[in-house]
Write a structure and sequence with these properties.
The protein is an alpha+beta fold. The chain has a domain at 6-70: 2-Layer Sandwich (Alpha-Beta Plaits). It is 40% helix and 30% strand. The protein has 3 helices and 4 strands. The protein has helices at residues 20-25, 50-59, 74-95, and strands at residues 6-13, 30-37, 40-45, 63-69. Strands 2-3-1-4 form a 4-stranded antiparallel sheet.
Length: 96
């Protein structure tokens, strides 16, 4: 998806007192973590962080029940592509 954010859905339960959202947010490349339900998180990152997310759950003495990639809509892909295209054109003009 070249430059577009990666979005993941994580279903996991952490041990009491272990803040899973904070642990997921500390992963390098993670841009945002939203807890959408008691044991469900939506994670946005600048690259694929599934392995690191799984390790974070295990480090929190947690149980990982689901880790999936949210496929972007066509509209999201289109928007991301043209935002990147516009930024690149601006850099070319600035270099001239």
């Amino acid at each position: 998806m070249g430059g577009c954010p990666h979005v993941f859905r994580i279903e996991a339960a952490a041990a009491p007192g272990k803040e899973l959202a904070a642990r997921l947010g500390a992963i390098a490349g993670v841009l945002n973590v939203q807890q959408t339900a008691e044991q469900t998180y939506r994670l946005t990152a600048d690259h694929d962080v599934r392995a690191e997310a799984a390790r974070a759950v295990v480090a929190a003495d947690g149980a990982l029940t689901r880790l999936s990639v949210d496929n972007p809509s066509l509209d999201a892909i289109y928007t991301c592509f043209f935002e990147k295209q516009t930024a690149t054109e601006g850099e070319i003009r600035d270099a001239a």
